[in-house]
Amino acid sequence: MKTAPTLSSAFLEAAAGKLPAPLQALRAQRGKALADMPLPTRKTENWKYSSRYLKLTDELAASLPSGRNSGPGLAVDGYHVVIHNGVLVPEASDFPDVDGIEIRSFVDLDDDTAQHLADRLDNTLDNNAVQMARLNTARFEDGLYIRLRQDAVLDRPLFVIFEADAEAAGSVYPRIYVDAGANSQMTLVEEYISTGDQTALVDAVTEFSLADGANVTNVRLSLEGENIHHIGATGARLLGHARLDSHCVGFGGPLRRHDLQVRLEAPGANCRLNGVAVTQDKQHFDNHTTIEHVAPHCDSEETYRNIAADESHAIFNGRIHIHKDAQKSNANMSNKNLLLSTGAEIDTKPELEIYADDVKCAHGATVGQLDETALFYLVSRGIDRREANTLLSMAFINELIEQIPVEAVRETVQARLNRFIEQAFEGA
């Protein structure tokens, strides 16, 4: 009988020791717990489409060295924090000076704050379902701690630029924790980019804790090169009348995976989750989302769109869980998918699990190709077929891109998506 593969011990070697003692202790605890951890296989339900792309070789176990160079991020108005190979670069960052807002590197935390943080890390995620998030906790060398006090408002978006510098093979473990106090507000843009041409693994985790009335917008852009394997997890816990707006845009690669888990834990909490993923050639992108309606009178709205070209593969698995006490819940999920070639594959699995009887819930998914009637209409009016294909494909996803609240981000994403679709129809 063939034994299941386990995580190599090379991934559990002690990381750099600059962190405060409580965070080092947490890492060591997680590392011990991961010894002989089974790796996902095709029989692992939430990895059945992606396990074959997960190649955690010993070559990737080494941490990428942190330097002081940073590639170009989005040239937009806002505050910027640069994290190079998992370590914050203060001299390349522009921190806000706003009352009630504290942004600090993990390595700079005092022991009391570090202990407070250690007690809360991983509390937003179901770590049995998000296996690689546990590896992040065992390996992170630094991170970004963002704290908003009650009623604090960040006046401009905060851009966190994660650069994976893959001059050599290895891995990097970016981490963010956002503690949003009552009635606070902020917009956080995570931008994942890369340089270098060696194979590298990015295992990223972001967590949000939203107190009563907090309002957070999170934009996540996965823009790394073809040599980067990216596994990401985002977790959020929302209290009464808190709101999370999530906008995820991802471009495919050898392995791209994002798990998004949201818990609505007190009446009035609500979230909106929008996502777009595009793949071409033999790329892969896997989005898994979970919304837990724990308390009554909570609302959720989820819309994800995939476009797959050539011989690529896109996956969406969305789950909404209405707990037995979550009466008066209102939940909607929609996943629409567009195949641009006969060789592409899209797998979609919307799930709705309801244990309350006074709810309004709906979910649905479609997979199809471009409408030939619409194409004929455009071509008959003098638009060449390639441009018509591009226009219709952009229209399929632009509804979600237009909802990104930062104009410069919208324009940058639209331009890159347009280039992607034009490439997909070269020769059409």
TrEMBL record:
<dbReference type="InterPro" id="IPR037284">
    <property type="entry name" value="SUF_FeS_clus_asmbl_SufBD_sf"/>
</dbReference>
<dbReference type="InterPro" id="IPR055346">
    <property type="entry name" value="Fe-S_cluster_assembly_SufBD"/>
</dbReference>
<dbReference type="Pfam" id="PF01458">
    <property type="entry name" value="SUFBD_core"/>
</dbReference>
<protein>
    <submittedName>
        <fullName>Fe-S cluster assembly protein SufD</fullName>
    </submittedName>
</protein>
<feature type="domain" description="SUF system FeS cluster assembly SufBD core">
    <location>
        <begin position="169"/>
        <end position="396"/>
    </location>
</feature>
<dbReference type="InterPro" id="IPR011542">
    <property type="entry name" value="SUF_FeS_clus_asmbl_SufD"/>
</dbReference>
<dbReference type="InterPro" id="IPR000825">
    <property type="entry name" value="SUF_FeS_clus_asmbl_SufBD_core"/>
</dbReference>
